[in-house]
Automatic annotation (TrEMBL):
Keyword presence, Repeat: yes
MF term (GO), any: RNA binding
Coiled-coil ranges (or none): none
Keywords linked to the UniProt accession: Repeat
GO biological process, one term: RNA modification
Start and stop residues of the PPR repeats: 50-84, 112-142, 144-178, 235-269, 328-362, 427-457, 458-492
Keyword Repeat: yes
Descriptive protein name: Pentatricopeptide repeat-containing protein
Source organism, top-level taxon: Eukaryota
Organism, scientific name: Zizania palustris (Northern wild rice)
Pfam hit, one: PPR
Length: 637
DNA sequence: TATGCGTAGT
């Protein structure tokens, strides 16, 4: 043995190096495609490993395994280079472990442009824009464009367009990616009128810019088509955006026509078709498309699995799941949630325990499932959560939000006592979730008690209490808390104002509401967003001032969203304004073509107005557009 | 060879 080793190393170091090289390539491939088990096996079997082997294995674990495993490998590595550190930071960032990411960033011996960019995007992803900006500003020398872009898209995603544009102009050479980041924020959050304006002002445009605009027109196919025809060139992404538009409207004939006309279809085009048929309730067609699909795609199979599960065809779904070569978190969660919705909690639990990379959705699904069926093996969950100790606050937060959404007061109380015993109450995360939980369950006094017992209050704590009072119809107390918050020198944010405005609305404080709304910008330098307009429409609507409400909507700087039209529609119902209801409903159907409650509301308004023809027409629309009731309420189908 | 994901699935 020893002799053979000596000969090998003396004979041809070059071949040995290339063997490691080849193994590394294979390892990288397995890591990329998510074949974690195979990657592990190869890594274990490799007679020699270099830093690249370790990095490849680390990135496989970072992307597809539990964070703890990645960390263990990172700590065991004989040698690390800057990429090892960067991969580890990425892993922490993806799992929401921002503090760990920062500790690594501070500890690393040398940083490259990548590291700085990673840290900025880690913070923006967590909504910590201030900290992200500090990192960007601290970056020595000439800052790279990617780092600026991470910050710009962080601002844009959070609706801070002025900051995004300001930073864009501070860049030595703003590239197209920077412009496109802002445009992406606009098309996804602000509606199209502002996007069009920005798009026209862009110094140059590429395919990404055009495609973002197309994506923004989703469901408004006349406008989309017009833009599509105007494009100087089209790639598969553009075609896919058009396809998604038709699919979004459940116009599957048109989608299919487009699909056959496309110059080339990629895996996303096929997946879009599969999911389109699934949402249209056409499972056979979905299955046919999937079978013809020349790519192996977890995403497409997950879509069909979802369809089966919605029709309670558990065995068909499970067969698909078992046949998957690569399983990511989404497909696990889909299968687990399918079991939960069918009341098969034991099966759900078995899968949940087998799942390696559980995320928030997995935990939420299981906890909500047990809460739904009135059981909750609390200790069991807490034991299981040991594998990622540091995320304990998030477990509690997610328990509380599950309980709150289900109004599971009793179970939530049990969690509360567990939190107290485990000492996690001091952190504001679980405390804030607890406030919201009690408030959502209508126990505002208990919410208040939690708030009073907390050591420190951040903006979220104050907001939770204000919104809590408001949603429980106690507008006066909400405003009292708001005044106290101001007295404590805490600067209100957008959420605070949503709470305050809805408090005024619930309490019938019209003048106060108008005052807060009109002085938002001046007093708190907050620009009203769609949610604030929705509150004001609600406020004016409740007071019977429908005309003022409608004028407010027409004067909006941004595209009114579904919340705004929904508030108007609700007000129309109370005050029996049939014409305006019709208009608001039309807008809602465009924005949320699949939401049953909108159709039902309009149908009811028409019926109450004695307009039976109209009511019948709306019911027909529901059938024609294949609008589905949400799963769980669907009964036996 | 390894790292900041334009479009798809919970």
């Amino acid at each position: 043995m020893a002799a053979a080793k000596v000969t090998a190393s003396a004979a041809a170091p070059a071949t040995r190096v290339s063997a490691v090289f080849r193994s590394n390539q294979e390892l990288t491939r397995l890591a990329r495609s998510g074949q974690l088990a195979a990657a592990r096996r190869l890594f274990e079997e490799m007679p020699r490993r270099n830093v690249v082997s370790y990095n490849a294995m680390l990135s496989a674990l970072a992307r597809h395994g539990p964070l703890a495993d990645a960390r263990r490998l990172f700590d065991e590595m004989p040698r690390r280079n800057v990429i090892s550190w960067n991969v580890m930071i990425t892993a922490c960032s993806h799992h929401g472990h921002v503090t760990d990411a920062r500790e690594l960033f501070d500890a690393m011996p040398a940083r490259d442009d990548f590291s700085w960019t990673l840290m900025v995007s880690c913070y923006t992803r967590a909504g910590e824009l201030g900290l992200a900006r500090e990192v960007l500003d601290r970056m020595p020398g000439e800052k790279c464009a990617a780092c600026y872009n991470a910050m710009i898209s962080g601002y844009a995603k959070n609706g801070r367009f002025d900051d995004a544009v300001t930073l864009l102009h501070e860049m030595p050479v703003p590239d197209l990616v920077s412009w496109n980041s802002v445009l992406a924020g606009l098309t996804r959050n602000e509606g199209m009128s502002r996007s069009v304006q920005f798009f026209n002002e862009m110094p140059e445009k590429d395919l990404v810019s055009w495609n973002l605009m197309l994506e923004g027109y989703a469901g408004r196919m006349n406008e989309a088509r017009e833009l599509f025809d105007r494009m100087p060139e089209r790639n598969v992404v553009a075609w896919n955006a058009m396809l998604a538009g038709y699919v979004h409207l459940s116009h599957m004939e048109e989608a299919y026509k487009l699909f056959t006309e496309m110059p080339d279809q990629n895996s996303i085009s096929w997946t879009t078709m599969v999911s389109g048929y699934v949402h249209a309730g056409k499972l056979q067609e979905a299955k046919d498309v999937l079978n013809k699909m020349p790519f192996d795609s977890v995403t497409a199979k997950t879509a069909l699995m979802h369809g089966y599960l919605r029709s309670r065809r558990i065995d068909d779904a499970r067969k698909l799941f078992d046949g998957l070569a690569v399983r990511d978190a989404v497909c696990w969660n889909t299968m687990i949630s399918g079991y939960v919705q069918c009341g098969m909690l034991d099966e759900a639990m078995v899968l949940f325990q087998q799942m390696l990379n559980k995320d928030m959705v997995s935990w939420n699904t299981m906890i909500a499932g047990y809460a739904l069926y009135g059981q909750m093996p609390l200790q069991h969950f807490m034991h299981m959560r040991r594998d990622s100790k540091r995320a304990d606050w998030s477990t509690y937060a997610c328990c509380f939000s599950a309980c709150a959404n289900l109004a599971a007061l009793h179970v939530g109380r049990q969690f509360h006592s567990l939190v107290v015993r485990s000492g996690h109450i001091s952190g504001s995360f679980s405390g804030n979730a607890l406030i919201s939980f009690y408030a959502k369950c209508g126990r505002i006094l208990e919410a208040r008690q939690v708030f009073d017992e907390m050591e420190r209050h951040d903006i979220v704590s104050w907001n939770a209490l204000i919104v809590g009072y408001a949603s429980n119809g106690n507008g006066a107390d909400a405003i009292l808390v708001f005044r106290k918050m101001e007295a404590n020198d805490i600067r209100p944010d957008e959420v605070t104002l949503v709470g305050v405005l809805s408090a005024c609305s619930h309490a019938g404080l019209i003048d106060e509401g108008l005052h807060f709304f009109n002085s938002m910008t001046k007093l708190y330098s907050l620009k009203p967003v769609a949610e604030h307009y929705a509150c004001m429409v609600d406020l004016l609507g409740r007071a019977g001032k429908l005309r003022e409400a409608f004028e407010l909507v027409q004067g909006m700087q941004m595209e009114p969203n579904a919340g705004v039209w929904g508030a108007l529609l609700g007000a129309c119902r109370v005050h029996k304004n049939h014409e305006l209801a019709q208009l608001a409903a039309e807008k809602l159907f465009q924005l949320e073509p699949r939401k049953t409650s909108n159709y039902v509301l309009l149908s009811n308004i028409s019926a109450e107005a004695g307009n039976w023809n109209e009511a019948e027409k709306v019911r027909f629309l529901i059938k024609e557009r294949n609008v589905h009731k949400p799963p769980g309420l669907a009964g036996s189908t």
